Amino acid sequence: MEWLVRTHNRLPADTPAAERERLRAAERERAMELRTQGVLRKLWRTPGSAGTVALYECRNATHLHEALSSLPMFPWLEVSVEPLADHPQEAQAAALAAVRADSLDHTEGYDDQPV
Q: Helix (H, G, I), strand (E, B), or coil: what is residue 115?
């Protein structure tokens, strides 16, 4: 199941620089582990803020909570979660993408000569 997760980092401004950097490094490391596991699928920054928007793929809400709470910054994150459901149009979009990919996957030039 896919989940749209918005976070805003509320780490106190007076957090010592060394601690802030330690937490950031640990957060990056844990996020890469979640990516490797296929849990964190996509991550975007929110321009002009300390926020992110992410696409997670988890078995259920408990699995998502475990993933989020494993982040070192979790105690300071304001989190909102939206469960996502497939739209019926997605099957058509996937079929169109496959047709486009097939039409681009050729080994001959325009005059039937090898590329």
A: coil
